[in-house]
User: What shape does this take?
Amino acid sequence: MNIALTGVAIVLIATLGGVVIVRRNSSQQPIQVKAVLFGLYFWGLVFLQLVIAGLFWAKAKAG
Assistant: This one.
């Protein structure tokens, strides 16, 4: 259950982060460009959060 909650938190944070970044940086872009940029930002944030979570997990297992 703890892993599922962590996954849900990562997805929610990445979604909110992607929306905020797209709204802040692309005011005059077409909707198609905004959609592609959201996907790029979303997966970038997911990857970054998974790396950080993995580092914390490895640190917890080691000591």
Notes: The two ends are 23 Å apart (CA to CA).
